[in-house]
Amino acid sequence: MTRVVFLLVPQLHLLDLAGPAQVFSTAAAHGLGYEIGYVAEQEDVPTAQGVALRAATEWPPLSPGDLVVVPGWRSPVLRAHGELSAATLERLAAHHAAGGTVASICAGADALGRAGLLDGRRCTTHHDLQDELAHRYPRASVVHDVLYVVDDRVVTSAGIASGIDLALHLVAVRHGPAAASRIAREMVVYARRNGDERQTSAMLRHRAHLVDAVHRVQDLIDTRFTRRLSLTDLASASGVSERTLTRHFTEATGLTPLRYQQELRVERAEHLIAHGATAEAAARAVGFQDARMLRRLRARAGTSTANG
């Protein structure tokens, strides 16, 4: 039996807690041997979403095979938020020193930092907090724009929904990828993501604009990016001319509609390759005739990243 203990901090985000808790409770329902507990420094714990939670104030006995998870809390900055007593931080450090695993979601990484668990280790957190985490813990190596990082039984993840990815990874490590996939399927998770995948998908990175016509075209491309899409059809869907669409789309996203579709294809192909598909199979699955164009676009993206 593996005990999973969530350390609840005032103003925690519900999804930071509920996502991984659902993974482990579903695993328990499948007979994988998980027992879930919740501890805090006070019985009643307010959340960022306004629902109060109740937790035990006494820690259960922990063994090296057990897991402690610190969900994140509402925090535009890490400093002066998520306060925990020295005794609680010592418990986190002691569990790890005894051979146990300690994990965090989002701002929860700050608690691990205060416990000394990030020193000399790779870690990550929400993209809005990564620079501050690196400044607060200069002995840590903060990895930017990844979903989660595992380093010597210290597991840190990005914001909010990435806690599900982290928990599925831990289940896969202990029980195999088939068990994790079965849980993800039951939870209606769209895709199991690896830790080194980017925190924001291409479908989200280019949405920070207010042009309705461009959003309509992006909606269409998002759902049909594996198909051949003509500029004429896209312009018709947006209600503007081809020339106007290209101009608005480029101004809003920095890409032409074709380059946006290609970025979606490449990102999805890389996901398939990371999960065992060949480059040829991945290329065909996302709409390329063969892997040559995929390799060319991946090489161009790598060059752009290096130059950026």
Automatic annotation (TrEMBL):
InterPro entries: Class_I_gatase-like, DJ-1/PfpI, Homeodomain-like_sf, HTH_AraC, INH-QAR. Transmembrane segments: none annotated. It comes from Streptomyces kaniharaensis. Residues 215-308 form the HTH araC/xylS-type domain. CDD domains: GATase1_AraC_1 (cd03137). It holds the Pfam family HTH_18. GO terms for molecular function: DNA-binding transcription factor activity; sequence-specific DNA binding. This is AraC family transcriptional regulator. Keywords: Transcription, Transcription regulation. PROSITE patterns: HTH_ARAC_FAMILY_2.
